[in-house]
Each structure stands twice: as C-alpha cells, then as structure tokens.
Amino acid sequence: MFDELLEINKQNFEDVIHSQKKMLGAIDTLAHLELPKKGVSEKEAVYTSDKVTLYHYVPKSKKLISPPVLISYALVNKYYMMDLQEGKSFIGGLLDAGLDLYLIDWGYPTKDDMYMTMEDYILGYLDEAVDYIREESGYDQINLMGICQGGTFSTIYTSLRPEKIKNLITLVTPIDFDTDEKLLFKWGPYLDIDSIVDAYGVVPGDFMNNGFLMLQPVTLTTNKYLDLIDSLDDADKMTNFIAMEKWIFDSPGQAGETIRQFNNDLYRDNKLVKGELIIGDEQVDMKNIQCPVLHIYAKFDHQVPNSSSDKMKKYVGSKDFEEHCIETGHIGLFVSGKSQKIVVPMISDWVKDHSK
Fold first, then answer.
1. Rg of the chain on CA atoms, in Å
2. pLDDT of 207 strictly over 80
C-alpha cells in the first residue's frame, strides 16, 4: 500500500514538472514567434483602380507557361490564405510549376463604396484587370482562375466576355444555389439582406465573420482553442495557427448593393443557372462558356456544398470540361498536404496542356 502511494506521488510530481517545463517552453515560443506576413511570395502592384489592386507575382521559372493566369478570389476574406507559409503555399507551388500569376486584391470597402454593384466588380474591376494583362502580355486571351465567390464572378465574367478567356479554372465555387445542404445555403434564401444593407450600407466584416463561425460553432469557436494547449511550445504549429487566425479575422466589409444582389439573385432566386441573371444590362448565359474548364471542389466543404458545385458541367457550353472532387475541406484545398501533392500539380499540368 505504501509503495503504491509513493508511486502515485512520484507520478504526480513528474506530471507537475512536465507541465511546468511545457509552460516555460510555451512562453519562450510565444516570445520569439515571428508574426506571419500577408503572403510570402514576392509580388508587385502593377495596376490600381479605386481600392482595387492588381498584383503580378514574381515568376520563379525561366520558362513560363503562357498565357498568364489571373486569380479572382472571394470578396469575403483575403487572398493570402493561399500563400501563408514557405513550402506550404498554394501560390508558391503554382509559381514553382512555371505559371505566370496575377491576382486581384479587392481591397477594403468603405461607406463611399456602399452603392457598388456586381457589375462594378465583374464588368468594371475584373474586366480592367483582364485587359491590362492582355495588353501587357500580348495575348488576346488569358487564363482565369476563380476561387469560391471569386469563381462565381469568374464564371459570370467568362459568360459575358468569352472572347477574352482562353481557359477557366474554378475552385470550391458555388454555381447552383438551389440546395438546402450546409447552413449557409439554408440561411441564404430567407436572409433579410435588404434590412441589413439598409441598416449598414457596407456590411461589416465582423458581422459576416460571425455568420461563418456559426457554420461549425463548436469546432471554430471552442475546440480549436482547447486543442491548441498541447501545441503551445511547438513553434511550427503556433506559427501556422496564428497565420490562420490572422487570416480568418481579416474580413473586409461588403459593399451593400453587391451583397444584396448576390444574396437575392443567387441564394434566393438562383438566377445564374436559370439564365435570368442580369449584370448591368446584359443577360448571363453560361452556355456562352465554350472554352476549356477545369472545375475542382472539396468533398468535405462546409461552406460550399457539393450539390452546389457539382452541377457546373450541366450548365456550361464547353465540350472540354474536367472535374475533380478532392477529399479535403474548403480551406484544405489550399493549405493541406493534398493541396501540394494533388491540387497544385493537377492545375499546373492542366494549364500547361491547355496552353498549347
């Protein structure tokens, strides 16, 4: 009995010492942790219009795959999620493969942008960026890569200006909004977006972010912080965690008239696939998309359900259509091991094959 008590006390003492060492290690790790940058790949601003900036990434290959690729990201978060860490960067992987990359940074809307519409973004800023690259590169057509909402914008743009796009690549992109899978698509048709826009003008990023956190409330607001305790003394894990947290809460506000139209015309009325969507005074017909299309979505996507993404082939006019479902999540498509091993080679090989 005495020996058992002695062994228990010894184990308790060792546990206390281990915990104290781990805590000291955590303090040292956090004290010397380098704060992550907003993207690690070198780039330069080549064109600006209002708050929108067009970046050109510095090529890493002497032999570039042509024509250039323009990346259109979503309005809701910032693009640098794709470029958080050296060796794990989606952008870096594409540059290593020889792609010539441009990217649109939509900026941070303020009150004077409250009346900006989808037309302003798609037939204004996006079209200006495409024309700039066409002129600079000397190619009549360029490659367009759209991600999430940026993929929806890219699809709409290619429908309206098909003569300017050689190849279209869409990733985790909502197309058919007539689905009640996932919370975001359950909310969308019933959300009183008109009252929200009328109240705010520019819908605050924090308001939007709280809605996204509710898609997985326990995982995103509690569990990830509890799980963090065991990693406090691991510099690599902490750097990755802080980089992701910085990105998650870097949420631009949303121009009121744009989010009003996006919600009412797409989430509520599903006008894109019905052929009823009007941008400016032009009707969007997805059958106008005759160029090759590479469409990639994530099997475990909690934001864009598969039932919204996997219908794209049904609506476009392209006869050269390639589709892949990757066993990862919405963000995992860009930051997980599968991103570097599967997604980056898949995109770069496809672009190379379709640039001939």
1. 23
2. no
